Structure formats: structure tokens, C-alpha cells
Amino acid sequence: MAKRRRIEDTLRHMGQMWNASRETPADPGLRDRYPEIPRIPIRLICPRLDKEINQGNILRIAEAFRLERVVFGNEDREWDPSGAMGATVWQPFSREDPLAAIEAARADGYRIYGLDLAERAVAIHRVEWCFPSALVVGEE
Predict the structure, then answer these.
(1) CA proximity to 106, closest of 66, 126, 134, 81
(2) Is residue 134 a contact partner of residue 43, using CB atoms and an 8 Å limit?
(3) In whole angstroms, what is the distance from residue 69 CA to residue 62 CA?
(4) DSSP string covering 42-92, please?
(5) Tens place of pLDDT for every residue, the chain, 140 residues?
(6) C-beta separation of 71 from 112 below 8 A
(7) Vertex 115 angle, CA 109 and 116, to 5°
(8) Which of 14, 27, 109, 126 is deepest in the core (most CB within 10 A)?
């Protein structure tokens, strides 16, 4: 129950910040307050991606949703954040061993979810989400 309250409080605060930013048409002040907007307690763990350019796209999407952190696998692959459109400045991310990142999330009390298209997989809209959570995504 406390985890659900935490995410609800975060979303409420984000809404308040958004409304406050719209109060002054000439200068909403959102740029100044942006670092203070809380992040949603979701870690996105990406062990392996087929296309390196997706690293930047994932960072941009994670920043749009204010995810807590993105972890990319540290395999010997090229690093290409070119699709990030500046999100590398704002979105916390790292490159590390994905199994270690999953274990660290579990040790920090995060619920682990795996995105999969297997026949036995639960549809994403039917999942009973608990927060904080870590979402593990694999190859595209």
C-alpha cells in the first residue's frame, strides 16, 4: 500500500508542477524547476539491443516519463545515443552487467518484470503493477 501511495504522490506532484508551470505564459519557469520534478520509481534494464541507435531513443522515452534510471548492458557493442535528442544530459543511465542490475534492484526492494511475447506471458494491461519496479526488456 505504501508503494502505491508513493507512486500516486509522485504523479500528483508532477501534476502540480505541470499546472504551476502554465501559470505564467511568458516564462513558465519549468526549465528552472525541471530537476526538482520527482522521478517515477521505475528502473528500465536493457540487457541487449539489436540496434545501437535505440539506446538514445530509449533514453528519450525514459526521460519523457521521468523514469528513475535506465541500465544498458555493458557488452562490447557500440554506444550510440544519437537518438537521445539531449536526454543524456537529464536522464540517469549507466552501462553495467544486466544480471547485477537486476539483483541490485531486487535487493533495493524493486519488483522485477520481464517484457516478453511468449504465449504464456500476461498482457501488459492485465499486470498488477507494484512500485518500485524494474522492467527488463530484451532484444527488439
Answers:
(1) 134
(2) yes
(3) 8
(4) EEEEES--SSTTHHHHHHHHHHHTTEEEEEE--SS-----GGGTTHHHHS-
(5) 566 667 777 777 777 776 766 555 565 677 778 778 889 999 999 987 777 777 888 888 898 899 999 998 876 666 666 666 666 777 888 889 999 999 999 999 999 999 888 888 898 889 989 999 999 987 65
(6) no
(7) 140
(8) 14
Taking the C-alpha atoms of residue 45 and residue 96, their distance in angstroms, rounded to an integer, is: 10
- C-alpha cell read off for 65: 516519463
Q: Supply the pLDDT for residue 103.
A: 97
Alpha carbon 3 to its chain centroid, in Å, reads: 17
Q: How many CA atoms lie within 13 A of 70 on its CB side?
A: 26
**CA 71/CA 60 separation, integer angstroms:** 13
Amino acid at 69: R
